[in-house]
Amino acid sequence: MKIAIVMGSDSDLPIMKEAAEFLDEMNIAYEISIVSAHRTPKRMYEFAKAARDKGISVIIAGAGGSAHLPGMIASITTLPVIGVPVKSKSLDGVDSLYSIVQMPAGIPVATMAINGAKNAGILAASILSISDSNIADKLQAFKNDLESTVTEKAERLEALGLGYLSYTK
Questions:
Q1: For residue range 3-37, what is the model confidence (pLDDT) as tens digits?
Q2: Is the dihedral of CA 93, 83, 99, 11 positive or negative?
Q3: Alpha-carbon gap, residue 125 to 130, rounded angstroms
């Protein structure tokens, strides 16, 4: 099992690497590449068509602007596709979000928040955890760490007298 991370342009890499970094933390295999729906449609088609045979289990596709990459890949493969709208210069990524989230019936794409590549990595790992207890254990440890971090911050705040405030008279 491995995950593919693809993006429409190398300018998306600073965002999409967050998914890769999370997968590295979880020790989950992945491949990463540039596959443009508009500039390299044949490459995109060949990638999507061959993904399952290459051992890919989940595809994370990030794109900005018109952001057709996740949906076009989802139209070709039966693998789960997670779309990451990448913030664009002109419309702050709202255009990308709308392009990815508004898929027609029959072509689902799980859509993350704008620049939400880390959550895409977490969701991809969660999908793999259905059949891999090792990944499930790592995800549980990750969530336990999140809980501990928030609890420690709350306790520090409360120690300063800034915790839960009561406004009863």
A1: 999 999 999 999 999 999 999 999 999 999 999 99
A2: positive
A3: 9
CA-closest candidate to residue 11, choices 80, 95, 89: 89
DSSP string for residues in 66-121? T--HHHHHHHH-SS-EEEEEEPPTTTTTHHHHHHHH-PPTT---EE--TT-HHHHH
36-47 pLDDT tens trace: 999 999 999 999
Per residue, the 3-state secondary structure of 8-37, as one string, reads CCHHHHHHHHHHHHHHHHHCCCEEEEECCC
Under DSSP, is residue 51 helix (H, G, I), strand (E, B) or coil?
coil
How far apart CA 32 and CA 111 sit, in angstroms, is 19
pLDDT of 166 > 60? The answer is no
The β-bridge relationship of strands 56-64 and 30-34 is: unpaired
- Cα-Cα-Cα-Cα dihedral of 70, 74, 78, 80, to 10°? 30
8 Å CB contact between 108 and 74: yes
Q: Per DSSP, what are the bridge partners of residue 3?
A: 30, 58
Query: What would the mean pLDDT of 101-127 be, rounded to a whole number?
Result: 97
